[in-house]
Amino acid sequence: MCVPSSERVSDQAAPAVLLLTFGSPEGDHDLGPFLVGVLAREPAPHEVTDLRRRYHQVGWSPLVRITGELAAALEARLRLTHPGALVRVGTGHAHPTTNDGIAALAPTKARSISPFR
Question: What's the domain range around 46?
């Protein structure tokens, strides 16, 4: 017997998705911590100054904004068939960190988290 997908979905736990990205500093205050994560060491003052100069020349990266928009769109799409679906962002070298993203999904009691990079 074929069970309609809408009935099967109700028996499943809602998906929990962690959207992963490299990360990007959002402003001057993030440059030092960002470089520590990328370089795996304390950056020399000239490295921070050089990165600051480059970001000021080209503008700050749209990565954080775009990733947040993508997470919201994916969550909205998933909720069409899985009402409790959650999508959170975790980054490797900025905020929110990967651990922040996992912690944000923890209250869902999902059986698993699907990471997407």
Answer: 27-60
